[in-house]
Amino acid sequence: MKFISIICIIVSASVFTFSPLAQHAHAQAGCAGDTNGDGIVNGVDLAQVLADWGACDGPTISTITPAVGPTSGGTAITISGTSFFGSASVRVGKLAATSVLVTSSTSLTAVTPAGTGVADVTVTTDYGAFTLANAFAYQIALPWATTLEFAPNPAVVTDVAFLARMIATGLPWRVRDNASNIEMLLVPPGVFTMGASPGDVEAQSDESPVHQVTLTGSFYMGKTEVTQGQWIAEMVSNPSTFIGDLNRPVERVTWNMIQPFCAQNGLRLPTEAEWEYACRGGTLSSRYGPIDD
Q1: pTM score, two decimals?
Q2: How many CA atoms does the CB half-sphere of 229 hold within 13 Å?
């Protein structure tokens, strides 16, 4: 009698007919009890309902794509997670997102409001709310550069901590300097150990002692060396020996020769600490790459 009463509660919205030869019940009102969508209401559906018995879970958030956008808002985002049931609302920071659409129990879309900095994202449904901290970064437009890509590419920036620091800056990670046409990559603030690492037998004496360095500000560094084509566009002459391809790095350039090039474009050379920090990219090995790189 216990099982009969449970079945009545589950399928009370449907009318059923039973056949002595049939091993299952057929719903006649839209198959409200057909949880697996096979057109039949039977023990499989009942098992699923019993497995899920109890209060519905509140939502969770696993990822937000893209996780960055301009401060003006208007970024269409996709939020992945679980238990997106019923109506839903989304907040990015303290402001409500617009155009919220639940596409499935594990995905919804929304459009971000205007904002600044790194913001929490909250999804609220009929069954609860969930907040993912520091989930969306409002990135700042740079007046001196053209943004090529806002969000850091995890396939390129493989160090998780370094990637998080890049996003936290609120700056685009890949830009092109408007004056020099040089593509540059964002280097976020951070702390690293500078100098001759243990095991580096090729280190020079002036690379010791090893010491901790803190870089408090972000900066951009050229993705590659300055090419001969970029140099000629500013300086006319080409001091390089290995000519024939303007995409080759310009060489035979002294510190004094580079100063006018930098001044004309509002650039500068990196410090030794900035160079080593950027080259290491979060690695802790004795070398940041092969000796000839």
Answers
A1: 0.61
A2: 8
